[in-house]
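Progress report, Aim 2. The chain analyzed during this reporting quarter is listed below.
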Amino acid sequence: MSKIEDIVDSLENKISKILHKQEVLRQTNAKLSEELVKYQQEVLQKQEELSTWIEKYESLKVASSMLGSDENKRDTKLKINTLIRDIDHCIAQLSE
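Predicted structure tokens for the chain:
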């Protein structure tokens, strides 16, 4: 009987250790999930900031070329022509 009791005690110890490891892993998983959500929010915020800076850069390029800079002059002309076409289209729709 002593041998069976030793086996049962050994199994209980192993099960206890496994349950403890499982709980530790569950807590670690929850912590990592929270960190993941936090970092995903940071990435979204950085992407929004990047978009804002790209828009500012594009505006600055247009303003710079309008002030006489030869760089990006072609792009500025194309944008102005697009705006003029849009305005003409709006005027045409209003006059109908």
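DSSP finds two helices and no strands in the chain. The helical segments are 2-66, 73-95. These observations will guide the mutagenesis work planned for the next reporting period.
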